[in-house]
Amino acid sequence: MNTHYYKVAEQVFAFRTPESDKQNYLPSCEPFAYTPKEGEDLLFTLTIDDNLSPAENGELIGEFDCGGADFNVHRLADDSYEFLIAPPGADFCGLLQTNALFTEATLALRGSTWARSFAANNSIMLLYAFAAADKNTLLFHASVIKNGGHGYLFLGVSGTGKSTHSSLWLKHIPGSELMNDDNPVVVATEQGAIVYGSPWSGKTPCYRNISAPVGAFVRIRQEKINHISRDKTLEALSALLPSVSSMKWDDRVYNGIYDSISLLIAHVPCYTLGCRPDQEAAEVCYNAVFVK
After folding, report:
1. Model confidence band, residue 66 (pLDDT cutoffs 50, 70, 90)
2. Number of structural domains found in the chain
């Protein structure tokens, strides 16, 4: 087997492929390629094995969308998991089996070169999110701008204008740069939080191996008047919790995420921005949240 190592937000993981398999499955991971130190812990290892067969029995947990992929989830008798992975509206192209902690996983692939890469990339993202969930490391659904040495995360359900608001900062707020446009990683600490670029950035190819202290979380809402207010604790919780990749049926994953978000709320300001997609919205937000 060929083993490739990557490091994202201080977490190292391995991706193993047969020696005969020459496909480059994870081009967006290349900026995160890493040579591990002797004895260094791995977050998880994913091995490609197209001979993997579906489990004969298991409990259907449900179906969900994550990162633009459809997942069909079964829990097996030993509390491990099996996922069927498919592009939206298409046949499945990946069969992923993982242990209960998401630290050891095997993936069988089918379909075109694109489909195989799609399943591999989404499997890596899923394993990362759930293996790291109890390590104060969260995969957010957000667009993030870096300005003045801090990162500002724009949150909201799909279609609310997260990427649009980032583009307004890039156009109208000097010194702004895009760190990630869909799935940054946030590490919570007792001193605050650090946001990292990741190999996953939605439709925008922004795969940057960079980091910054989090200046603020900002929930975006489309409104006719531009205005911003700082969230109280419950408001912040209602903004952050739905913005993190989670599994409510897995206590380790969900409790780890909840604890990390509680830590974030205690140390990082959260805001709600009602806005139009215009220059004034970017300026109103910047003037309120920028860390001087």
Report:
1. low
2. 2
